[in-house]
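**User:**
Everyone, produce one record:

**Assistant:**
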Amino acid sequence: MGRLNFKKLINDGRIKKLIIVSGAVGIALIFLSSFIELPQGDSSVDVEGYKAQMQSSIAATLDSVEGVGENRVLLTIENSVEGVYLNNSSTKTKEIEPKIRGVVVVCEGGDDPVVVDRVNEIVTKALNISAAKVCVTRLKDE
């Protein structure tokens, strides 16, 4: 008996029209979604914000290292944020952070070779860059 009611439902012209209209609306929405770019939230990385955050983090870390004393950190950035997209699509899969070109650390202990080695090691490990990209020097006396 349940099967009989289902056949009646399928044969009903209104149900067929509803299914066809629903399918057409679904296809239209899929087609339109390729033209409409919805905001992805706040996922994009601001280069200047990234730079400031990294400088601040490194300076705060160096504050806790014996012998460094007062310090200032300057980062130079090689490129901006790069987005990785699906083929032939505006769908972003991920963002690649900016590449760091170099780091300058000016600190009170910048003339002590032991402190310079510590700072170099911290910066190179924290940023995953070579020591050739790091310059550590003494902060001038005021």
